[in-house]
Amino acid sequence: MTKFKKLAKTLTAGALALVMMVSMPFVAQAQQIQTAAPISEEMTQEEFLDLVAELEAMLAEMFANTQNLIFLTEEAREIALDDFEYFEWYLLEVFPQQNIVGRVFNDTLEDILDIMWFAIYDKAPINNWAAILMPERWGHELEDDLDIAAAYMFSLILMLTFEIEMLGHVSPQLDIEVQHYLFSAMQFFHALEAEFDEDEEIEEGFTSYIIDAFGLDIYHLFYSTFDSIASDYLILNNPATLWFYGLNPDEWDLYESPFSILGTFYEDNVTTKIIEEDRIAYLRIDSFINDPDLDAETLMAFYEEIQGFDHLIIDITGNLGGFSTYFPLNVVRPLITDNLHFRHVEFFMSSFLTDHLFEYPLSLNFANLYDILPAREFVQNSQGMDMFNQDDLRLLDYAIVWETVYTPSEDGFPFEGRIWLLTDEWSASASVAAAQMAVETGFATVVGEPTSRTSGTIHTFITLPQTGIAVRVDLGYTTDSRGRSIEEFGVVPNIANMDGMDALETTLAIIALEKDVDGEVFVPLRQMSYIFGASVNWDAARSLVIIVNASGTPHLVSVPEVGGFIEDGTSWVPRSFIETLF
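Above: the chain's sequence. Below: its structure in C-alpha cell form.
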C-alpha cells in the first residue's frame, strides 16, 4: 500500500496541471495560463499569478473536503473488482505503449495496475472525481452500491490517467465526450438511412453499386469508415454506459450541429497579430476542438491580410488538441501552393478485440493506406529507423504505413514566406500530429520544446460491463521517420528554445539574425550553428569553418563555395544551406 499512497500523493501534487487535461470546465482557464506569453497584452504577470493561486486554492479545497471521499462497501468492492479485472485484461490485450510506461515512469503498467487492484481490495478511500467533473450527474450523495462502485472506478482510472500523464489517451471519458461520439455516429447512420430511403434500388444492391460506380478501393474506404463508426456506436450504446453518463439518445435532435453538443463556439479561440508591418505575422490557435467554420472566418481574413509577408508564426503551445481534421483544413491547405505528401507509420498489436477495425483500414487515420507489413520486417527493411526501440517488437505485430496528400484549397491564400510552428510540452493530441507533419514535410519550421507524448487518432473504448464507464485507449504506437517513439519522446522540434527564451522569443531572435541580399536570405553561420547545438571552429590554414553537429558529425564548410560571403568578420550563408546542414 506504500506505492498506492505515493500514487495518491502524486495526484495531489500534480492536480493543477493534470486537471487541465481532463476537465472541460477548466480548459478555458488552463488555456489562459498557457497563453500568457510575451505577445499577450491582456494579462499581467500579477494577474497570471493570481489566476494560478485561485486554481490551486480551488483544488486544495476539493482535496481537503473529506466529504468528497468515496468509501467502498463490501458489495461495491465486488462490483469494482469485477469491472477492474475486465479493464485490466482488455487494456493489456490492445495497448501497444505498455513498454513505454515502464521506461518513462519507472513502474511497469502491470505494477501500476496491481496497485490499483489492491486499492480496491483494501477499500482505500479516494476523492470522487466523477462528482467534480460531472456534477450534474454525479454530484449527489452516494448510497447505492452500484453508484459507489461506479464513482470509485471512474476516479481510480482517472488516477491511472494522471500517473501515466495521459499516455495513449488512456482516460475515462466525460459525459460530454461520450455524447459527442454517440451523437456523431447516430448522425452518420441517420444520413445514410435517409439516402437509402430515397433510392431503394441502391439500397438493395448497395455493395455492387458502390463497386461498379467507384471501384473496389472506394468500397473498402466506405466500409472502413462505416466499421469504425459502427464500432464506436456498438461499444458506447449499451444500457450500462448510458446509465453511467445519464444519456438518452432518444431525446437527441440528429439535425443539430455536433459542435453545439460540445459547446465549442469560442469566438476568441484564434488570436492574430502583426508583429512587424509587412514582415512578421503571428497567429495563435488555442484549441483544435473549436468549430472550424467559425474559426475559418478569422483565419481566412488574416491569411488574405498577410499576403506578401516574410514570416508567419503559428503558435500551438498549450493547445491540447481536438479534431484531427482542424489543422489540415484550416491551416495547411489554405497556405500551400502545391500538393504536400506526408507518409508516416503506426504499429499495432494484433488482438481479436480490435482486429476487425483493420480489415479495411483505408480511412481510419484520415489518410490513404500505403502498406501493411509485419512490424519486425518493416523495421529491419526500412531506411533510417535507427532510433526504433527493438525491445518493443516483442509487443508489436504489424505496421501500417499511411500517406496523406494535402491539396491546396481552392479559396485559400498561399503563403510564400516562411512558416514557423511553436510547440511546448502542452501541445497534445492533434497538436502533436500537426507538429509531426510539419517536421516531416517541411511545411513549417517547428520551434520550442518537445510536444506532449499524447498522440494517435485510431482508438477504441473499453466499456466496463457493470458500471458502464467508457475508457478511451489509443491502438497505435507512432514513430517519426527515425523510428523514435512519439509517445515516448514527443515530437522533437527543428529548433529548441534558446537559453532563457520561450518559443516565440526564440523565433523572433532567429528572424532578427537574417539579412536580405538581392532577394535571398542569408544568416550568420556561427550563430545559427550554436542555435542547433553545434560547435564551430575556424581552420585559418584552409579558410574553412569546422562545424561539429550535436551528434558529433563534422562538416567542413567553405563559405564562398556554399554561396556565402564574409562581412566584418562574420560568415554569412544562405538560409537554405543551414536547413540542409542541420
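The first helix runs from residue 2 to 13.
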